[in-house]
Structure formats: structure tokens, C-alpha cells
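Re-running the complex after MR caught last week's input typo. The corrected sequence lines follow. Everything else is unchanged.
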Amino acid sequence: MADSKLDLLQGTLDVMVLQTLAALGSQHGYGIARRIEQVSGDEVLLNQGTIYASLVRLQQRGWIAAKWGISDNNRKAKFYSITVRGRARLADDMAYWERLSNVMARVLAIAPEA
Amino acid sequence: MRELFHRLTSFFKKADHDRELDAEVESHIAFAIDEYIRGGMAPEEARRQAMIRFGGREAAKELQRDARSLPFLECLAQDLRYALRTMRREPGFTVFAILIVGLGVGASVTVFSMLNAVLVRPLPFHEPESLVWIANAGSHEGLSGQTLQVLPFLAFKERNRSFSDMAAYFAFYGKGDSKLTIHGEAERLNALPVSQNFFPLLGVQPKLGRSFTAEECKWNAPKAVLLSDGLWKQRFAADPHVVGRRITLDDAAATVVGVLPASFDFGSVFAPGTHMDLYFPFPLTQETDRWGNTIAVVGRLKPGATVASAQAEATILGDRISKEQPNRNGLTPHLSLLKEHVSGKLRPALIVLAFAVGVVMLIVCANLSNLLLARSTTRQKELAIRSALGAGRSRLVRQILTESILLSSCGALLGAVLALAGTQTLSHLTTFSIPLLSDVHLNMGALLFTLVLAVLTGVVFGLAPALQAPKAVNDALKEQHRGSTNSRKHAWIRGALVVSEIVFACVLMVGTGLLLRSFLRVLDVNLGFQPAQAAAMRIDPSARFSTPQQMTGYLSEALRRVREVNGVEAAGVTDALPLGRNRTWFAGAKGVVYKRNEAPLAFVHIVSDGYLKAMGIPLKAGRDFSERDTTATESVIMINETLARRLFSGQNPIGRLMKAGDDKDKHVVGVVSDVRHLGLEQASGPEMYFPIRQTRDYASIDLVVRSKMNINDLGVSVRSVLLPIDPGLPREKFRPLQQIVDQSVSPRRFIVLLLSGFACFALILASLGIYAVISYSVGQRTQEIGIRMALGATPGELQKNVLLQTLSLAAIGLLLGTAASGLLTRTMRGMLFGITPSDPVTFAGMLILLAGVAAAAGYLPARRASRIDPMIALRAE
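Corrected-run output:
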């Protein structure tokens, strides 16, 4: 049971990471994690560390690219950016999520009869 | 796909990726600290907060590792490393297990590969399943009885409707029939005369040049020659332009018309243990018809025809042709598939071999199971601890499985290597007369099958303890497996395994024993001649010795000179050495009229004086030939005892007249002992000897010399005295007669050698199995034995106790084994020689041997049991 929950979270996190990179451009792991926290109001990420599993998975699938670089405050960090294939994937995922949330909204809107 | 690739790479670059991840996590935390400090937090607190936000650092890393790599593979690598460590920790067990599996797999795969080549795989010809061997089912066993005469053959070939074509070769070829002279250096080669369509019929294409033309196959046509691949490479330096080259063959000019492919090996198929160097045309004409039965025939069935239908037609046709040509030898065609003719005789022996190797493999599996079971019991504690520390059941099973599969795979790998070496060795054996041996290759099917078998054994018997492991946690940790049902069940299984090992070993040993005794009986056969210290060499003179006078002169001079060589005790010549080619002629007493089908036939030997002495053939009555038996004196003949009995039943044959060979009456001057001419296992037939100075009807001359000299020195000396009379004499070596005898028993020797190897292996494995089981049970009973000793049991009693346990296992095994052997060896009747399948000596001998080995294997642990110190044993509790 625990496994399937994690799977769902993983998939969700992947989309979030892709969208964040699509919006912000090149960003390091901490930056991505912070951004997601800010946007979601600390509801999604329990631990910032979990983002690295998502990052390496996306990278292996060729949806994001990584490069070591220097940050604004002069720290060495690994910078991630979304690839062309990643953007295509993100578009697909967004369409899927939209459909799913529409369906969910309609289903949840069913009122109890009588 | 891409992801899998990445995951795989990251599996192999684990260290790099881990370092990079560490750096990334460090930088992440540094960013977080920076931000908290900017927010006004104290550095200490900032660091703490950053850590909290990040969460479990190792957990995050592990998560990332799982995501990027293959967790399954990681586990496997871990298990493998652990398994290797375990194997290293128990080198004795590991080496032994790998060795037995390796030997078992190696032996089985080698034998099955050989079986595949010899029995299963089609012959290396075009559409071999329609090739039929056409022999003459003559009343006589010799070659003359089995070959066909040219004109009846041609009539048969012309008129039958079953065969699309028939080809023939001259069956009376001999070793070293042809003399090839290159740059004045002469060499004897093996040459085969074949009919024009011989190669086309088999579907053999010369790789250079062409096959023979009809023109080249006429009587007295200019000689054309096809070279074998081997000769082309050795003597013609693989010259690509050799076609059309003129060579000197038998002191006459001949033209090379082609080179045959290396894949064609006449000897391997038609005459195992020999090899052919070259081929020339055999004319199927009136002239060769006069030679009598000389040709061996291969036919190709028309589509739709079967051996049975062709046989039915051939029988009728043969009868008709025999009646139409009353002056020629009868034609009674006997057809069989060529493959059947080539390997049919060896089939039972090879099947026994396959059975034996199967039994060996079973023993190997039983032994491996036994080993794994024994080990698993000792490892239960380890497994229990690991399980208590949180190892999941599936994880434990996986690890145990990895270990046993690794072990059996190592063994299987060793086996594959051994099998490769084994098949290589077999295919290069030339001294064994076994057909198609040169075609033996590693058979992938057999290899896969045995590998799977070995690995499966590992899996099944590795799995059993692994599945029980977690249940046994409590027991195992309490170290009380002494009385647990588990170990009792194991003891039962292991006992059964050992008994089955003994049964298998018993069957194998009895079978081997029977064949070994048969082999010894064969070697013990009275050959009729003394092969020791005798050797033979072809000394056919050059073509310039052509008239009978010249030949006689040459032979007399040659014999005189050879006998003068120091160390030569006797010398003579013959046209047919025993166990070589044979031909039969009519041999009747003068004045007796025989019916056509009852005419006595006898093997023909054309020999000189001194031949009997050189061969060591005892003269039973009368006299040997002498130099004075020439064309100028009365025609004489010597006969063997069998022919003497046949023709003159009991009366003194000396001085009687015979009709044999040419038209002249032959005076019987001597009676000699029977010689096993066809083979060691076949009784001698009637034989007769003609003086070489009174006939010209011989195709070869073998010099036989009896001498205690080293065979090479003898060759040099003899050649040096012969060269002055014939400078064209090829360089050649003496062949010891023993070698000829060995060659003739080589298939039997081959089978017996392999079987003895298997039987020894089985015996060793069975004894080790007994040893392992008994010493394990002694180990388990240490405390019990200690108590018994403390209560006054003597070491002798304890020893007897343990030995009895061994012997009871052995007794059950032997009882079952004897029964099984009794049933199985009955099928071997046809392969035995001089003994019955229930030969009591063999059975008793093998049983005593096995019982003795079992007792010895049980004795060591018994002795150990009797030396247990009761104080130590009891304190161990």
C-alpha cells in the first residue's frame, strides 16, 4: 500500500519539477525545491531531499539536462534545465492533469440523490 | 530502453555517481544555510533548520540511488559478492562441488556430442537420407562375399527402377597402394579407385577443378587423379593452380583434375581409422569384371522409393541377373541406409555409453544435492541470525539461490570447457576405428540441456533449506537442531540419495565390468600369429620390375638381403596381412563336384617362404614353402586347419590335390594354424596360402620381419639394404603387427576406456557421498556418543555401530543395484564376448569392490567417532 502512494507522489513531483524548470529556466536542486514549497504552501514536499530521486529520473529519461555551474552567491551547484523532449512531455502531462482534474471535479460534484 | 541503458551505466559507475550526489547534497544544504542566515538566523540554528528541511540525508540518497540504478541488480551484486565470500571461506567444499559438476557436465556433453555426430546427424553428403549401401549378401563374411562383380552390377544399375543412380568404389584398396614421386622422392599413399559418378552421386563438389569424365574412366585411359584436401596442402603446398599438373603416380604419368574439399573424408565414413590421399577412376568394364567381386556400391533412391521397396525389387532382379549370367558370381543385393551401414554396428555400444554418462550425471546431481543439503543444515544458524536481524524471507531465499546457482554455474562453466576440450580431442583421434569421429563438434543442445540440469539441481536443493530457514529461527538460535524434525527429514533424504548413488554406481560398474572382461577376453584370443616383435612394411617394387621373372628375382634378392640384416630373425612377404583386406576364392578338393551354393571358399594369402616364421604362425603338418617353389616346379598350396577339416574331413591332407586359383592342380604341402583374419572376435574361416613365386595374382607386397630391434632402426637398416636393388623405393616405416591388432579392437577399447573412466568417477562420487553422510551423522551424534562412552561403551563398539550404519546403507544400495544391473545388462548381450550377461565373476567382483569402498568410506568417520573425548563432547552442550 505504501508503495503505491509513493508512486503517485513521485509522478506528481516529476510534473512539478518539469513545470518549475519550464517557468524558471536553469535552476539548481535547492532552488527547485524552494520554488515548489513556496508555490504549494509547504503542502507537497515533506523533505527537500526527495527531489533528487525525481531529478535523476527525469534526467535519465532525457527530459531535463544537468550541468555544474556557479550560483549568484558564488556557490558551486548542479543546474538543471528542461529539454525540448521535456517540454513535450510537460505538455502531455499538463493535458492529462487538466483532464483528470476536470473529471475529478465533475465526479466530486455529484450530489447525493434525494 | 534509454532509461535501462542509463540505469545500467549508473550501476557500473556507482562510485562516481555517489560522489556527485554527495557534492550536490552538500551544495543544497549550503544554499539552505545561506538563506536562513540571510533571514537572520544564527549559523548553528540555520544549519539545524537546513538539515530538518532536507530530511533524512541517507534516505534521500538511497531513494536517488534506487531511482537511477537497478535495485535488483544491486541486490544481485551484493548476493554474488557474499556468495563468493562464502565460497572462499569453504574452499574444499567449493572446489569439490565445482569439480564434480564440471566433470559430470563435461563427460555428458562430450558423449552426447559424439552420439550426435555418429548416430544422429545426417552424413555429410547431399540429401544423405536417400543414400543406400548396396552389399552382396553372400554366404561368406569376407569382402569378396560382400562386394559386387562389375557386369552384374551394371545390369542391376541399368534395369532397376528404385534408384536414380548408383556409384561404386573398388573395395580391395590397401594401405599405401599408390606411390607418388615428387622430385625423385617417392612416398606411399592411400588411393581409392572410384566410379565416374561417385562424387556427383554423393553431392561432393571438388573445390578446385572437376570430377572425372567418362573418357577418363575407360580401361587404359590416361590416368586422372583427384587430390584430397590434406594431400593438396601437404604435398602441393595448397597450390591453387594444381589442376592440370602432371604428376608421377606408380612410376607413370597422371594428371591432377581436381582437389576435393576438406569436408569430404572418405575414411571417416566408409573406412573408419583410415584416410585417403587421392582418388582415381575405376573403369566399370569387361576387364575389371574379370577380377570377380570387387566393388562396393552406394545408390541414391528415387524420390518416393524406400529401402524396403528397393530391396524387394533388388531381390527379384538379383535373382534374374544371377540366372542370366551363370558364369559370374551371384548377385544377392542387400540394401541398408548408408547411415545405418556406417554407424549401425556401433549403435548399441554408443547407447550404452550414453546411458552410462546419464547415470554419471545422475550421481553428480545426487552428490551435489547431498552436499548442499549437508551445508544447509550447518548454515541454519547463520540464516536464522540474518532473519532475526530483519532480512526478509524472499531476500534470504534469493541469496541462498544465488549461492547455489553460482556454484552450479561455475561447475557448468568448467564442464563446458571440459566438453569443448573433450570434443576437440575426440575429433582428432585417428587411432580409433570409429566412423564420423572427425565430425564431432560441441553440441549446443546437449550443452544447454546439461547446463540446465546442473543449475536446476543447484536451485532445487538450494531452495529447500532456504524455504525452511525463517521457520527454524527459534530452534536454530537455541542450537537444538539435534532432535528437530528438519534434520531427521534431511537425514532420510540424504540416506536415500546415497543409496541411489550406490545403485547407479553399481549398475555402471557391473556394465563396465562385463565389457572390460569381454575386452580382456578379446585380447586373450588366440590370434593364430604372434604380433609381438613382428612388423610389416610395403615393399612393392618399381614398375620396371614387371615380368614374373623380374618380380621373383626382386623378391628373392630382397628377402636374402633383409635376412642378412643384423637382428632380423625371420622375414617373408604376403599380399594380405591379417585384419586387413581379404578376398576369397573357390577352394575345393580335386575330383569333388560341389553344388553352386555349397562351393567351398577360402581366404587367399599369397606368401613367400619365411612368412609363417616371421608371423609366428605355427605349421601343424607338412612343410613351409621354399625358394624352390617356382613356376618350374609343381604347384603347391598350404591350407589352414579349418579348410583341411572342411575338404578332407579327418584324413591326412598332405599330398592331396586341390583346385584353387589357376587351373593347375595344387599339391597340399602344409597345414597351418588358423589365423583370425577378419577380426579378433570372429572365428577363423577357411584359409589357403599360395607361393608368391607361382602366381602373379597379387596387388601388394608387405614385408613381414620378426626382430627384437627398435622398429625405427629396423626400418632404416632394411631400407638401406633394399635401396640398391630398387632405388625408387619410397621412404616408409615399419608398422608393428601389434598396432594392426590394436586398430582392429580400437572401437571396443574406446568404449571400455570411456566406461572405465565413468565407472571410476561414479565409484569415487558414491564413496564420497557415503563418507559425507556418515561423517555428518557422526558429527550430529557427537553428544550422544560422548554419553555412551561416559556410560562405558568401548571405542570398538562405537566403531562397529557407525560401520553398521554405513554397511546397511551400502547393503540396500547393492541389493537394488544388483537387481537393476541384472535387468539392464541383459540388453548388452550382443556386445559381450566370451561371457554371459550374468557373469558371476563380474558381479561378485564389482559388488565386493563397491562394498569395500563403502566400508572404507564409512571407516574414517567411524574411527573419528571412537576417538571422541566424552569430556569435551559433553561440555560442548
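None of the earlier attempt is carried over here. Residues 479-484 of chain B have pLDDT under 50 and may be disordered. Residues 587 and 608 of chain B are 20 Å apart (CA to CA).
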